[in-house]
Fold:
Amino acid sequence: MVLPHQGIDVILGMNWMNENHAVLDIGSRMVQLKSNASGKILRVHMPNQKHIEPTVNATEIQEIKKIPVVCEFPDVFSEELPGTAPVSRRPYRTAPDKLKELKTQLQEQLDKGFIRPISSPWGCPALFVKKKDQGGKRLCVDYRPLNAVIVKNKYPLPHIDILFDQLAGTRVFSKIDLRSGYYQIKIREEDIPKTAFSTRYGLYEYLVMSFGLTNAPAFFMYMMNSLFMNELDKFVVVFIDDILIYSKNEEKHEEHLRIRTQTLRSSAISFLGHILSEKGVAVDPSKVECVLNWKQPETITEIRSFLGLAGYYRRFIKDFSKTAKPMTSYSWSPNCEEAFQSLKRSLTTAPVLAQPDVTKPFDVYCDASGNGLGCVLMQEGRVVAYASRQLRKHEANYPTYDLELTAVVHALKIWRHYLLGNICHIYTDHKSLKYILTQPELNMRQ
Structure:
């Protein structure tokens, strides 16, 4: 942003004043500076704030690219990170049985115009990743060295639980999984060299957006939200390249599909690792299978990986934190093994969760113990979600009254988006809590 000074001689930053030991007198609006050489004291009057505010509010903000001086000297005002040299890594060794697949996929992408051969100072190694559905192999690039020097795009990805909240009362679903969605987006000509990747058969660069680039999901999400803005949360939810169209009946669904020019229809469908149906949301058995086949963790990293995968479905598992607590220790023990197997069993018997309907009252059940907090959100006798967490160190010293109240507060915080402005009934096994609103005196925690 470039702003005119409008008569202000100089603007002193906080860093400069700190280095020169400036003394601020806010009452008289003076800055006092002491010369290190002569020892003389200089006093500077600060202008009134009202003189500066119109400068910021009334000035038309210009993009730096449109300023004439910047256009004249583009090399001086480069968007590249300073001091960043081209990133290059040697290609990974490829197993003999995969060389044929590598050559085939390279040729396919060359024929489609997705890549082109080059000679470049840039280059990250290529590798294969197993596809989730077809079981084939997808050619990807290990862009970790490049991603480390890329300015990150902070466009938010939607929370999956929030997407599912839109499905209350719906019965018919259609899922659209875009075919090679990333390849539908071209890369700016000046950024193409950075996508270079090295293989056994030479160096290539992508002309379209590649898998593995750190900003690819954020930009694709931005594009999809822009395309579906008029339909989002009405009858469409989108997560990157997965599109779900939902309706309350067949007639409405046909109308919605015509709008989106799609003809796939189903009463139960898999979406983001969950099975959606008119009954509610359930765990996708195909996703649980990898949890059931998980071997006993032998390192801290493997324990964290398992808990991360199981935690994706924690809303389906009652007392998840209490069950998983033994596994958070650094040494494997019989208690860890029991917790490990218990989480596996819980996922295989996870209930179908009801979709929340914000037009109807909610029931919240809370409980607390020395091991942790547990909460259940219900509606019309059906479970909407479970929630739990371990006690923090200071909470372990709470009296029973405050501990039970902590469980209630925890439930109200995590389900605030459901309960705020709605009728809810809170149930607890600590009878004294019913008088919390009429209690004459409260302690600091309450």
